[in-house]
Amino acid sequence: MIMPGSASVAVLLTLVGVAVVAAPSEPDAEAKRAQQVVPPGYRQVAQEHGIPPALFYAIALTESGYTMPTAEAIRPWPWTLNIRGEGLYYPSHRAAAAALAATVHNGETAVDVGIMQIHWHYHHAALGGVRRALDPYHNLRVGAHILAQCYQQRLEWWSAAGCYHAPNNATLARRYQARVQRHWRTVVQDP
Fold it and tell me: In terms of CB atoms within 10 Å, which end of the chain has fewer, N or C?
């Protein structure tokens, strides 16, 4: 596994925000707590696509979650690739882009890319070029678009989450949905 460096950690925190947790005391405590835990970039992109922000963030945690050496909590890592089933966490956009470019140049297209682990083979047109595919906000927006399409087909958010990972395999979709639900519970209930 390739470990992120401290300079990249600072960039990551700037890009996706730092979760600030407070104990809300209003009746709608769960919704407020989710807003306080989900970093602003995720909330913004989720709202643009009509997606519950806590669910969207839970999917990102499931896809690219990484516990940084300087933190106790898991966070999505934007410069993540999954090549042939191996999750690789790169220290920078540049390093991940170089690895993705080399992989694609060698004919391998079964690569999951970025913070939302978008599958290059199926979604390379939406991802754009290698550098753009690894831009965290662009990657979030492509992932949100895919999830919103799943919701239009399934009409239920948990089912849409399963579809996001495995649209044509109900067994894999259910397993993935359970993993997302575990992350979602930590976002909403136990930050």
Answer: N
Identify which of 119, 93, 117, 96 has the alpha carbon closest to the alpha carbon of residue 108.
Answer: 119
Instruction: Give tens-digit pLDDT for 169-178.
Output: 999 999 999 9
Local structure of 171: helix, strand or coil: helix
Task: Count the Cβ atoms, other than its own, within 10 Å of residue 40.
Answer: 12
User: Hey, what domains does the chain have and what are their CATH numbers?
Assistant: 6-188 (1.10.530)
| Count of residues in the chain | 191
Residue 151 CA to residue 160 CA, distance in Å, equals 5
- 73, two tokens: 């909590």
Check if the beta carbon of residue 64 is closer than 8 Å to that of residue 117.
yes
Q: What is the distance, to the nearest Å, from the Cα of residue 9 to the centroid of all Cα atoms in its chain?
A: 16
| Alpha helical stretches, state H, the chain | 6-16, 29-37, 40-48, 53-64, 93-105, 120-127, 130-133, 136-154, 157-165, 170-188
Which are the contacts of 16, defined by CB distance < 8 A and separation ≥ 6?
39, 41, 42, 75, 76, 78, 115, 136
d(CA 122, CA 168): 13
Per-residue pLDDT reduced to its tens digit, 73-130: 889 999 999 999 999 999 999 999 999 999 999 999 999 999 999 999 999 999 999 9
Nearest Cα residue to 125 out of 145, 147, 106, 153: 145
How much is the mean pLDDT over the chain? 85
